[in-house]
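re: that complex we talked abt at group meeting.

here r the seqs, copy pasted straight from the sheet so there may be weird spacing, ignore it
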Amino acid sequence: MGIDECEWCNLTAKDKQWLLYETVFWDIYLADKQDYVGRCILVLKRHCDSFMHLEDDEWQDLKFVIDITEKIMREVLGAELCNWSCLMNDFYKKSNPNPHLHIHMRPRYRKPVQLGQKLFYDSEFGHHYDNQKQVQISAEEMEIVFGKLRAAFDKL
Amino acid sequence: MGIDECEWCNLTAKDKQWLLYETVFWDIYLADKQDYVGRCILVLKRHCDSFMHLEDDEWQDLKFVIDITEKIMREVLGAELCNWSCLMNDFYKKSNPNPHLHIHMRPRYRKPVQLGQKLFYDSEFGHHYDNQKQVQISAEEMEIVFGKLRAAFDKL
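got the structure back, here u go
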């Protein structure tokens, strides 16, 4: 088990269209599932199963990646905070798991996010994110969010 | 707002009874809510609102704290992985939040955890943790878990 059998090591061009930014060690993607507007996934560029096995420079770089991501979520989308989680549960559905380290980031909003004429509400603000929450935005709105975020990352 | 108004900066002796280990910058507590056996909370010893405002040495030390915690959960309790999250939502129920950085760690188990003659099941293994899950263990069993973990941390 390893790189060849890992879909996170072999992302398709379709997956990579949502790449917002990359550093030496990490990729920042806008998540497919926009349940919370701006939701991202930070993906380590190397196959590695857990925080425990990260190298020091990968851990240092992760701090930079978290900092720029949260700053941009606050400035561009008006997030009041970000929820961070490293869970990895899905990999363990298999008896022989092959986990690839990634981190979920959900921006959380006290005030609704405005995209064009539409408002998007974080109705659970102040509470745990709703893991069953439905996707809030259309494909076109996702393109708008991606464009705004990408422009902010490009300015770094 | 700051240290004086922060209950995480002013933990009681009753709270501190569950301290498993401390480093220069972080405290590791066994969580009150043992929904997943061995659940811990990592608490920064300084008042700070987010990862963004952590100092470099605090971030470095966090990696060490994560590493030892996951290693001990695997070795002592048989966890197959750990779920990590930094959410901070509760603080934002207030209009003037005063967040204090802390990280939740839930150990996850493919096989049941045995405490004495009782078995404890992670029936959601391979799936997101159940945020509504009830506490699984008695006060006496929590003491046993604390004792086992504390002994392992003491050996570091």
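couple things i noticed - The beta strands of chain B are 19-22, 26-30, 40-44, 81-86, 102-108, 113-115, 118-120. Chain B has one domain: 13-154.
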